[in-house]
Amino acid sequence: MLAPLHMVKCTLGNPLRNAIENYHCGDIIIKLREDSTVIIENKSNELSMQQISELYGRLARKTSRGGSGLGLDLISRLCAHCNWELSFIADSETITFSVKFS
Prior knowledge:
The protein has three helices and four strands; from the N terminus they run αββααββ. The protein is globular, with a radius of gyration of 13 Å. It has helices at residues 5-21, 49-61, 70-82; strands spanning 28-32, 37-42, 85-90, 95-100. Strand 3 (85-90) and strand 4 (95-100) form a beta hairpin. The protein has one domain: Heat Shock Protein 90 (2-Layer Sandwich), CATH 3.30.565.10. It is an alpha+beta fold.
């Protein structure tokens, strides 16, 4: 993978910081795959399904509201600009964020 370091830092820094800040118990798992995909899993998700739905909806619409989710919006735009594949999946126990760098 060849990509500007500052863009990679921006793309991975926000979701990693969010995982750490929302960590209370459980695990934060970071995986690097051979296909240049980075996966960050937060197994200590304490967001309600309503909050997860709102975050996911803003990411899908590429809009933000009230300060929450702005980082995801910016990351989404950056990934689209760089042709990187972004994935955000959440349930009541785990939030999984992944980026496939191309």
